[in-house]
Write a structure and sequence with these properties.
By secondary structure, the chain is mainly beta. Helix content is 8%, strand content 41%. The two termini are 18 Å apart.
Length: 208
């Protein structure tokens, strides 16, 4: 049993439940993926399924050999599986791996915010707004001690590139599934802009 699939964020909309409550939902396009590789416990040390998703304009010869004429995919990602022996190379994975009401985790790349200062990036307080301050309201302030250690500590929170990071949102609930259109509606927001690649995973059932 496969415990996940790949998708593409379409955008956000609203969905009205039967009791009249308006919920914000994210539409995810889960165009069928293809099983490209099966990772087993004996050979690889863990069990997962590698899926190919999306059409690539051009792929390298090593990837062509890896995909074994199954297609030319833009993305290759691994998703968890309950029992890898139930699947074979070339199998098609659709949205039916999920059901309405399932709790899933979605991983994607967050929106890039470009170069940002420490106040926007780390929510620093900033300097005083009076008493001789001039053009220093959004300055980072002191970034290290004096003689000891005599340098700036590694990992100091300073200005830099903000966003474009791998983000996982957990315990999102599936509100609706359209198998004909390959669209899943998920309650709440998911990482990244429209068109962003998403990895959807659900938890394996615990056995006592």
């Amino acid at each position: 049993m496969l415990l996940g699939t790949l998708g593409k964020k379409l955008g956000m909309t609203q969905m009205i439940s039967e009791d009249g409550i308006v919920n914000a939902v994210t539409a995810v396009d889960v165009t069928p993926s293809t099983i490209v590789q099966i990772k087993t416990l004996d050979r690889d040390g863990y069990e997962k399924i590698q899926l190919g998703y999306g059409e690539a304009n051009k792929i390298s010869k090593p990837l062509q050999g890896h995909m074994k004429d199954l297609g030319e995919f833009r993305y290759l990602r691994e998703v968890p599986v309950k029992d890898s022996s139930d699947h074979s190379l070339g199998d098609i994975v659709t949205a039916d791996v999920f059901s309405v009401g399932d709790k899933i985790s979605i991983t994607g790349t967050s929106k890039g915010k470009g170069f940002a200062g420490p106040i926007k990036r780390y929510h620093f307080k900033g300097g005083p707004k009076s008493h001789g301050q001039k053009d220093k309201h959004r300055a980072p302030g002191s970034i290290g001690a004096g003689t000891t250690p005599g340098r700036v500590w590694k990992g100091q929170r300073m200005a830099g590139h903000m966003g474009m990071e791998k983000v996982t949102v957990r315990n999102l609930q599936i509100a609706a599934i359209d198998l004909e259109s390959n669209i899943i509606l998920v309650k709440g927001a998911v990482p990244g802009p429209p068109g962003n690649l998403l990895i959807l995973r659900k938890k394996a059932e615990r056995t006592l």
